[in-house]
Amino acid sequence: MTMIEAAQLDSSRTAQRHAPPVAEVVGVRKTYFKPDGSVLVEALRGIDLAIPQAQYIGIMGASGSGKSTLMNVLGCLDRPTVGQYLLDGRDVAQMDDTELSRVRGRKIGFIFQAFNLISELDMVGNVEVPLFYQAVSKSVRRKRAIDKLNLVGLGDRLGHRPRELSGGQQQRVAVARALVTDPLILLADEPTGNLDSQTGVAILDLIDELHRQGLTIIVVTHDDKVSARCQRIIRLRDGLIESDTMMK
Known about the structure:
The structure is a single chain. This protein is α/β, with parallel strands linked by helices. It has a single domain, classed as 3-Layer(aba) Sandwich (Rossmann fold). It contains eight helices and ten strands. It has a six-stranded mixed sheet, with helices on both faces. A four-stranded antiparallel sheet has the order 2-1-4-5, covered by helices on one side. Helix 4 runs parallel beside helix 6, helix 5 (138-151) packs across helix 6 (167-179) and helix 6 packs parallel to helix 7. The longest helix has 16 residues, at 3-18. It is globular. It starts with a helix and ends with a strand. The model has no long low-confidence stretch (mean pLDDT 91).
């Protein structure tokens, strides 16, 4: 690392420490119950976590550690049983289903291991989907979708359907779809899990570039090669934060 790069990194860390968090989890517990009302599992047992703007975070942990549940809470896919989740200053834990869905659609971009593309739609149609549910006009949807597909390097494949694309290209479409709403946070769940190593590196390089452009990114992973790219690693164990480490 050069002296200039070191100075830029230090400046970035200082800015992150002093900026208000884009997301903050306070005293969050998540308990799943059996039909008879008894406790099935305490997936999260008291989590406090602040996520500054433009930070690149890896969430790790063994199976059953709570990382998937924490991802669901951070992504507004589930509510905590107890505690607060402040997203962009608002407590989403107190929102009704309609408002929660609206906030999730506008504030969170998702990248999933399985791509989750719609086979009947071409690439533009797939990327447009989040904007369709926000009642964005057809002309604006198309323009924004094409802009994001150009961003991920697929501007020459706009009319292709998922079956006509490689795994890496499908994941790039998924990245474009996650970005089309200009989200506050990009949340990636094992984004290279279904890709070969070379293609996975290309997707991680793309995510790195998005982070350099200032996007807040949270990656849930068990892969040390993925987490090595993150600025901060949060490890969970038995529903608690075992360690929280700044890496770079």
